């Protein structure tokens, strides 16, 4: 599978196997093994998510090179493998863009924290990532997805898609549509703080799911932050919030039994402690905005899943027809739970700060 593509990259030896790998929703990811036993990651880049692949790969190349200057460990940052022409990705035609990374050996990648300590370590990883990139020239980064965490803009798209209702699905998801619309004002608050100049833009990761960090297998300590497609200027509350959305949840993103889905306050505290330790430079306003980051990222993600469901599932990879709807429902359930736990969340950030 894809051996023709792999032959165009500077691997150490010819590839002998290439299998689908991982649980990402965006790119097609493959684990590659060569004749020598060395492993690589091959990815078919999602053109739907990333229309400007050149800009995307320029970002990743610059960011990974910068990160390598901040660590002695060769697995402390991703390494792109060049093509036979020395390029950082391979363009084979329309909707056919490929890249290869060194496989981060000796690592584990979790879909949910096995212990609170794992989640703490992921907070250290993402916090350190943000801290390491504080000296990176932010103005050189391309905006790989326009308005990625601009929640009001996500609502604009949601309403456009709802009005078209191309799949005729709107009639079956009225409660979810009502929930989204009832929370629109709340969803605009974080961007409001940014526009008012109350929160600083930093270089952030913007997709801080637990499965985008690799922990070392032996010590279960941060090794490498991966999935750098959305690394661009953003708010610290985005990175904090998206981690809480995914990692402090008591059930999987696509759990059907919503009674299992809550936000675990102890995990919220654990992550807050790690993130603030790794990012000591956050301003008072930024700290105060962290719970709003968690709620906003969760709401926004639910709205994005609902939008994709109404639109016919073109953006997020799905494994069955209602997958995006199930994902939307867990996110909205989490938002409801965060509303109930709001005072405690604010108190925890104050205590840990
Ligand atoms: P997506 O954008 O689709 O989420 P990712 O870049 O996150 O794609 O890759 C999907 C999964 O592949 C990750 O969650 C991780 O398990 C694995 N993976 C990606 N890059 C590497 C790497 N360099 N070394 C080891 N595993 C990797
Ligand atoms: C996607 O690429 P992945 O699977 O790590 C998405 C995130 C969503 C997430 C929901 C580029 O993340 O924004 O929060 O799914 N990434 C992109 O699980 O859209
Ligand atoms: Mg990923």
Please supply descriptive tags for the structure shown above.
globular, 353 residues, Aminoglycoside 3'-phosphotransferase, Chain: A, domain 2, Phosphorylase Kinase, domain 1, three-stranded antiparallel β-sheet, 13 helices, binds magnesium ion, binds adenosine-5'-diphosphate, binds 2-acetamido-2-deoxy-1-O-phosphono-alpha-D-glucopyranose, alpha+beta, five-stranded antiparallel β-sheet, 2 domains
Structure in words:
The chain is of the alpha+beta class. It has two domains: 3-105, Phosphorylase Kinase, domain 1 (2-Layer Sandwich); 116-352, Aminoglycoside 3'-phosphotransferase, Chain: A, domain 2 (Alpha-Beta Complex), CATH 3.90.1200. The protein is built from 13 helices and ten strands. It has helices at residues 3-6, 53-68, 116-132, 151-164, 174-182, 184-187, 189-195, 236-247, 265-278, 284-288, 290-311, 323-340, 342-352, and strands at residues 15-20, 28-34, 39-44, 90-93, 96-102, 107-108, 202-204, 213-216, 222-225, 232-234. A five-stranded antiparallel beta sheet has the order 1-2-3-5-4. Strands 6-8-9 form a three-stranded antiparallel beta sheet, with helices on one face. Strand 2 and strand 3 (39-44) form a beta hairpin. Helix 3 (116-132) packs parallel to helix 9 (265-278). The longest helix has 22 residues, at 290-311. The chain is globular. The termini are far apart. 42% of the residues are buried. Residues 21-27, 29, 41, 78, 101, 103-104, 109, 211-212, 226-227, 229 line the site of adenosine-5'-diphosphate (ADP).
